[in-house]
Amino acid sequence: MKTNKERIQEIKNNGYNISFENVFNIAFENYKKIALYAGLLVLVSSVFLCIIAFFIIAFTFGIDNFMKVIQPENLDPKNFSDEFLMIYIGSLTLFSCFVSPFSAGLIKMAHCADIDEEFHVSTAFEYYQFKYFKELFLATLTISLLNFGISSVLDASGIPALGFMGSLTISLLSILTVPFIIFSDCKAFEALNNSFALISKKPLLFLLLMAVTYIFVVTGFFVFFVGLFFTLPFLYSMYYAIYKTVVDFK
């Protein structure tokens, strides 16, 4: 029997056959199984994080100063100092790194639903174990730095669209990174390499899949905003469906 790494290498060498319809159907059927549970979990977690953020801001900057900063006339990026922008970007990056295990847990929840295995709230926090946390943190940090670095260099060309395209390319090519870490037990850079190698074989197909996914997710925003929390799990079902159809579980 081939090892997991041997199977991944074989897929790299020989490619794979998947279709838009098959991946989308797997993702949607899976989404229906986790939508309510995962949506409530995301909603509660978001409220909890907002409360924590409120107290951090209150004690660090003061509510009055914060209210002045978020006034519409003060939100023009041209008015921000370089120091403020660096703190802002750094904070968002660290936040993404720390919540990446939670996103991994939602992908695992999608897997449990697919194989009819019971899942719980603890499933969403399963990957905060140090073994996985360090790899997910490092992978997310690397992707964020690549995004920032490439978009900054391309933005310097004077054509903002190039920076956006560069960032979009990195985000697209890295969509299998987390599944490789949690399902194939890959290290951070190994998972990134595998994701880039496999997604780059059919980039247009995956671009279309992710575009449809984000359109579906955004529609939740128009359902009293709260609907966004219940359409967001479709994103994690799609990540799972892509991994399942490309790599499979054996």
Describe this structure in words.
The chain has twelve helices and no strands. It has 250 residues and is mostly helical. It has one domain. α2 packs across α4, α4 packs across α8 and α6 packs antiparallel against α7. The model has no long low-confidence stretch (mean pLDDT 87).
Key structural traits:
12 helices; 250 residues; 0% strand; 76% helix; mainly alpha
Count helical runs.
12
Largest sheet, in brief, is: none
Structural class: mainly alpha
Which quaternary structure do these chains form? single chain
* Helix amount: over 70%
The number of domains is 1
Would you report the number of β strands? Answer: 0
Q: In a few lines, what is going on in this structure?
A:
The chain is mostly helical and 250 residues long. Helix content is 76%, strand content 0%.
Write the layout of secondary structure elements.
Elements lengths: L3 H11 L5 H41 L2 H7 L12 H33 L6 H4 L5 H26 L4 H14 L3 H7 L4 H12 L3 H17 L7 H5 L1 H14 L4
